[in-house]
Structure to design on (314 residues):
């Protein structure tokens, strides 16, 4: 026989369910009947336990006038020391970048002054008797010219020098200044690596050249004042270290070398005279300085805000 049962269940407010199910039920007598159960869910008038709890009151930040006292309080004093140390470091790095900016501008101004000055005539200068550091500071990047002749028998090659991504080296030959027995090393230009491996530099020599022009450059020494180790007479060098090369030269060398200027017309053949690349911009120093000062400011403001919002008001 069909039996209908209606069940009413009281659930919390946050539930909203309704379900109907129908299934067979075996009665004790062994006869099969059909039972229909209907579940009706209703909201309870009571609130959930979470909603009955009182909401916490929003914390008010500490007043600005209390920040000096909070910074040195027992809770924050060690954090304040770390923040102050960070601010000092970032501020000092900003000052250092401004100093580097001033140095770069001074170097650029010195280069422009030297480059615009009249060319020096090398036969009238005591280039071998003065200290190398004094000559380098006064004559670096100065345009110069000389009359004389090359001694290609004493020519050397500066290896591991790239040109437009191609491996090679620079030919360096002494130029004997007319009217004396002094010479100056001249960087004549670049040749490819396969020419260096062959070792025959005579096709690149011009015995009729009697005049040279270029810019004066200081000796290329090792860092820290170290001396270049020389094992006897050698033709391949990694830098133009004038004092080291002097040991295998039969005459006195000037304490600077000449970087030969490229010709006004298009260069054909080797060696290719390479003009130094000079960057006269301010570089990235000003941007770095602003960046470090910004970090210092953010650290100070951020720490003050953090302390205010994390300290309860009594």
């Amino acid at each position: 026989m069909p039996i209908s049962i209606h069940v009413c269940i009281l659930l919390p407010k946050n539930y909203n369910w309704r379900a109907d199910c129908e299934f067979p039920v075996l009665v004790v007598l062994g006869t099969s009947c059909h039972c229909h159960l209907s579940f009706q869910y209703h909201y309870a008038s009571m609130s959930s336990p979470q909603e009955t709890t009182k909401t916490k009151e929003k914390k008010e930040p500490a007043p600005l006038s209390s920040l000096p006292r909070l910074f040195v309080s027992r809770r924050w004093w060690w954090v304040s020391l770390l923040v102050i140390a960070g601010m000092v470091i970032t501020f000092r790095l900003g000052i250092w970048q401004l100093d580097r900016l001033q140095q770069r501008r001074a170097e650029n101004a010195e280069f422009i002054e030297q480059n615009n000055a009249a060319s020096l005539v090398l036969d009238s200068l005591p280039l071998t008797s003065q200290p190398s550091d004094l000559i380098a500071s006064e004559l670096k990047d100065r345009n110069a010219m000389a009359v004389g002749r090359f001694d290609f028998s004493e020519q050397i090659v500066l290896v591991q020098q790239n040109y437009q991504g191609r491996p090679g080296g620079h030919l360096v030959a002494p130029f004997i200044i007319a009217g004396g027995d002094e010479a100056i090393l001249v960087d004549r230009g670049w040749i490819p690596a396969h020419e260096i491996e062959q070792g025959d530099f005579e096709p690149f020599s011009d015995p009729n050249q009697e005049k040279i022009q270029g810019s004066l450059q200081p000796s290329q020494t090792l860092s820290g004042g170290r001396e270049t180790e020389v094992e006897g007479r050698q033709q391949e060098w990694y830098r133009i270290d004038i004092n080291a090369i002097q040991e295998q030269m039969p005459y006195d060398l000037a304490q600077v070398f000449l970087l030969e200027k490229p010709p006004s017309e298009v260069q054909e053949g080797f060696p290719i005279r390479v003009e130094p690349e000079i960057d006269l911009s301010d570089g990235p120093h000003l941007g770095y300085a602003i960046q470090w000062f910004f970090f210092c400011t953010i650290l100070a403001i951020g720490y003050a805000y953090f302390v205010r919002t994390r300290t309860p008001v009594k």
